[in-house]
Amino acid sequence: MTNSDLLQRSLAAVWHPCTQMKQHAEGDSALPMIPIASGKGVWLHDFDGRRYLDGISSWWVNLFGHCNPRINAALHAQLEQLEHVLLAGCTHQPVVELSERLSALTGGALGHCFYASDGASATEIALKMSFHSWRNRGQGGKQEFLCLRGSYHGETVGALAVTDVALFKDAYAPLIRPASTVPTPDARLAQEGESALDVARRAAAALERHLDEHHSRIAALIVEPLIQCASGMAMYDPEYLRLARALCDRYQVHLICDEIAVGCGRSGTFFAHEQAGIRPDFLCLSKGISGGYLPLSMVLTTDTVYAAFYDDRVSRGFLHSHSYTGNALACRAALATLDIFAEDRVIDTNRALSAHLGNCLKPLADHPHVRHLRQCGMIAAFDVRSDDTQFSERFYRQALAREILLRPIGNTIYFMPPYVISQEECDFLVARAIAALDAALHS
Ligand SMILES: *Cc1c(COP(=O)(O)O)cnc(C)c1O
User: Fold this and answer.
1) What are the pLDDT digits (tens) for 97-111?
2) Structure confidence by residue, pLDDT tens digits, 137-194
3) Which residues have C-beta within 8 Å of that of residue 193, sequence separation ≥ 6?
4) Hey, where's the site called Participates in the substrate recognition with KAPA and in a stacking interaction with the adenine ring of SAM on this chain (predicted)?
5) Which of 59, 152, 176, 262 lies in disulfide reach of 272, CB 3.0 to 4.6 Å?
6) Which of 268, 30, 236, 258 is nearest to 123 (CA)?
7) Ligand 1 centroid to 56 CA: how many Å?
8) Which residues make up each annotated binding site for pyridoxal 5'-phosphate?
9) CA 284 to ligand 1 centroid distance, Å
10) pLDDT tens-digit readout, 259-268
């Protein structure tokens, strides 16, 4: 196999996600597609001997490197036991153990775990469960959802309703029953003399006004705790979550924390919502939970929500299902991932790594084209001052030419590496990114 062989076949037969396929068409200006032959740690290798440092954890899923020996071993062992069984009427060891361990990680507050295979489905489940639990409790009028400006919760038709990214949503507007949006606490919105805390309080005041008027129709508020990732790594003060939790309690509205991207240690704590000292009514997880190995998602919820469905009547149950709900291999990958967190004390060791990443980025603070240099745990980002509408694509190419895989979101460049990145690899990643930035700005 060679790069060009696989590339041609891929362009003919595979419809790639989040992609205008024509951009990859033949010609000198075509956007390069990278045929990946293998992966090891933070490195991806193509068929022609080139390598790329995976600076975005393969769309934020990979935590402990590609082909991690410990996760591989766990999966090999599971393959010899059970690959999959339906989870309606049957159960198995990996799904039970995983549910127990996730519950323990929430201090037992979210002790009921419902499974699916991808993030968008977890969002759908949380929305449906919230609405249905109110309905079962005689509050069927709660039929609406609330999300933050710039929110991203997935791209199925239901999840798009609570997603506020025009590029993904606008074409499908006629199909969607949109949620209401309230102001984001994005710290970049700070005005002269304002702190991130002030922005959070201002956004919470707007939330309060909205809830005060509409709460009787609202089932849930859905948020990405601390970092709105897909709309450009917008970071905000945890005070917003504290205030939102209190307002949701006061107005009888569920709080859904979508930790699909920010969970599993990304924000510096295992769950991002921990930094606000709160618990949500629903917690959505996916992406990193299986270590980046297999599609898996889940929604964790409380005794109160669970009790609203527990009844003699079947129709009051939560009858949602996916064929691969609770897949044994995916659950085993998740258990192996949680084992690594515990055995290697990952949350502690990531503190030094995150500080190192911050130090590497310091020189950028004075760069004339860099704005809003920011970091939360194992995510760092900055915005680039440039009027060039092609900037993002230009940077992507310059980065690939320097052996690093980074995909800016508009003019936001971000780093979200696997936790197994070494300090030397971190230096390499940032130094090459700075070189790519200057090349992209001057090309
Ligand atoms: C990626 C993401 C989703 C959607 O997950 P998929 O597996 O891509 O469907 C939902 N919410 C957030 C916050 C995400 O980052």
Assistant:
1) 999 999 999 999 999
2) 999 999 999 999 999 999 999 999 999 999 999 999 999 998 999 999 999 999 999 9
3) none
4) 18
5) 262
6) 258
7) 14
8) 119-120, 258, 322-323
9) 9
10) 999 999 999 9
Q: Which of 13-27, 175-189, 340-354 has the lowest mean pLDDT?
A: 13-27
Pick the atom of ligand 1 nearest to 119's CA: 5
Q: Residue 66 and residue 170: Cα distance in Å, rounded?
A: 35
Sign of the Cα torsion 366, 369, 375, 380 reads negative
> Is the pTM here over 0.85, yes or no?
yes
Nearest atom of ligand 1 to the alpha carbon of 258? 13
Binding residues for substrate: 59, 152, 287, 321, 407
pLDDT, residue 210, reads 98
Q: Which of 57, 115, 152 to mutate to test the pocket of ligand 1 (most atoms within 8 A of CB)?
A: 152
Ligand 1 centroid – CA 153 distance (Å): 6
Longest distance between any two alpha carbons in the chain, whole Å: 68
pLDDT at 348 > cutoff 90:
yes
pLDDT the model gives residue 32? 86
Q: Whose CA is nearest to atom 7 of ligand 1?
A: 119
User: DSSP secondary-structure letter at 41?
Assistant: B
Residue 52 neighbours by CB under 8 Å, 6+ apart: 34, 43, 44, 45, 46, 400, 403, 404, 405
- List the one residue out of 428, 322, 90 whose CA is nearest residue 415: 428
Task: Write the residue with the smallest CA distance to atom 11 of ligand 1.
Answer: 153
Structural contact between residues 44 and 66, judged by C-beta atoms closer than 8 angstroms:
yes
Tokens of residue 337, six digits: 């991932």
Residues with CB under 6 A from ligand 1: 118-120, 123, 152-154, 224, 229-230, 258, 260-261, 286-287
Which atom from ligand 1 is nearest to the alpha carbon of 259? 13
Distance from Cα 260 to the centre of ligand 1, integer Å? 6
pLDDT in tens, 35-81: 999 999 999 999 999 999 999 999 999 999 999 999 999 999 999 99
